Amino acid sequence: MDFEFPERINRAVASLTMQIAQRAIELRAQDEDIVDFSVGEPDFPTPDNIKNAAIKAIELNLTKYTANTGILELRKAIADKLERDNGLSYSPDEIIVSNGAKQCVYNAIQALVGENDDVLIPAPYYVSYPEMVKLAGGNPVFINTSVESGFKLTPELLESSLTPKTKMLILCNPSNPTGSVFHESELNALKETFRKGNYLILTDEIYEKIIYDGIGFLSVASLGEEIKKRTILVNGHSKAYSMTGWRIGYAAAEREIIKAMAKVQSHSTSNASTVSQYAALEALKGPQESVEIMRKEFEKRRDFLFEELNSIEGIFTSKPEGAFYVFPDVSYYLGKKFKDKIIGDVFEFSLFLLNEARVVVVPGIAFGNQNCIRISFSTSMDRIAEGIKRIKNALELLV
Ligand SMILES: Cc1ncc(COP(=O)(O)O)c(C=O)c1O
């Protein structure tokens, strides 16, 4: 059959890291011991109280469709959370529950970005943002940030990127892949530029609960009523409660925006999984100790990994202050040779680490960066130590 895909599908690309993932699968199939530093989810089980709430929901036959935007109790609990943790006041009809934060971002982009609208995305970025913009017919416009400035967007960078075509700015705070976190002073410095023009701000705060060094988290929406009105706040349960597979995320914004997002969702997935919504309700209302236990463990691993990476010749890393990723600059090694073959870019560098060190990392190009690799520390301390040892040994083979 002669079939042509629509332009918006052709413009979006599938995951760039498939080749590395495929090679890792092949090696594992041969019983090779692989250290996996590519993990994008917490390596802890979902807490028991949350699992039990889901079991109870099933027993009570709470297994049918819910309201499109989610059960009212959960939206109320989310509103309480936003008030308690972020000092933000939203009513339940300014909140939508979706199948993960990812669907919230997707719904928002579908609902708010039109053909040829520009969407500003600071790079490095979370892989899906540009592709979601393309799927909506919009243009992703990248703002490059550097390792030297801790990969943070500055007022100058933002100001010089704004045009009358700018429809939206997407922020990821704390950031996947860099682990950078906006401090209160940095967000305050951006405030004036956030108020300019007529664009919306989508803030992905999914790693809110995984922050280190006692840094306080400030939501972009807390910068004042004017900014709150133009902000779509996205958060969810995947990372804070180790609930990636339950698929629960939520967005809070002006009522009209939530209505438009609900329209998109009503014609795609209807509501988020009913059982997961009851589990998510318990996550917000029940004991919170597990959140801090996980955070502390991640902080220990971050400290160890950061120190180890800094002891390697030529590797430059900004210290992650949140999430569970480090994003070291490895450009020192690009252009070096392994057995007469030049390592030309970070993709080849990552493939080299997999083949010679049996360590999986994600090349920065997947996130719009040519010099770095992403190392996830969502694996045990022993595996981190083993992986670093292997990386050090492999790098000695490069000339
Ligand atoms: C920045 C960012 N946003 C969204 C998501 C997706 O989260 P969810 O599981 O809630 O869809 C991820 C998952 O890795 C992420 O890193």
TrEMBL record:
Domain of life: Bacteria
Pfam families named among the record's database cross-references: Aminotran_1_2 (PF00155)
GO biological process terms, semicolon-separated: amino acid metabolic process
Xref: SUPFAM superfamilies: PLP-dependent transferases
Molecular-function GO terms, alphabetical: pyridoxal phosphate binding; transaminase activity
Keywords for the protein's UniProt record, in alphabetical order: Aminotransferase, Pyridoxal phosphate, Transferase
Domain Aminotransferase class I/classII large: 33-391
Cofactors, names only: pyridoxal 5'-phosphate
Family label: Belongs to the class-I pyridoxal-phosphate-dependent aminotransferase family.
Protein name per its UniProtKB record: Aspartate aminotransferase
Source organism of the structure: Melioribacter roseus (strain DSM 23840 / JCM 17771 / VKM B-2668 / P3M-2)
